[in-house]
């Protein structure tokens, strides 16, 4: 559910999360299957965050992402 008092409030959003075989040493690939307009989500639904790319750390968990 979208956070209260945000433009996404009440929205339901679906994602694909694919874990590579070398997880947690490589980041998961996360993308929205629900169309969403957000500065960190591209037109294909891919989440564009540095922590999901070159700034990934095995100390991160999927719940922190």
From TrEMBL:
Note the SUPFAM superfamilies from the entry.
UBC-like
The protein's matches in InterPro entries, at most eight in alphabetical order, are given as: UBC, UBQ-conjugating_AS, UBQ-conjugating_enzyme/RWD
This protein's UniProt keywords: ATP-binding, Nucleotide-binding, Transferase, Ubl conjugation pathway
Q: Which GO MF term does the entry hold, naming one?
A: ATP binding
User: SMART domains recorded for this chain?
Assistant: UBCc
Catalytic center residues: 48
**Which residues does the UniProt record annotate as the domain UBC core?**
1-65
* A Pfam family of this chain: UQ_con
Q: Which family does it belong to?
A: Belongs to the ubiquitin-conjugating enzyme family.
The protein here is known as UBC core domain-containing protein
What organism does the UniProt record list as the source? Polarella glacialis
């Amino acid at each position: 559910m979208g956070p209260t008092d945000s433009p996404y409030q009440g929205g339901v959003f679906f994602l694909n999360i694919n874990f590579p075989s070398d997880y947690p040493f490589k980041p998961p690939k996360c993308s929205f299957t629900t169309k969403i307009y957000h500065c960190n989500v591209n037109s294909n639904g891919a989440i564009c965050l540095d922590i999901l790319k070159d700034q990934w750390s095995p100390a991160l968990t999927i719940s922190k992402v």
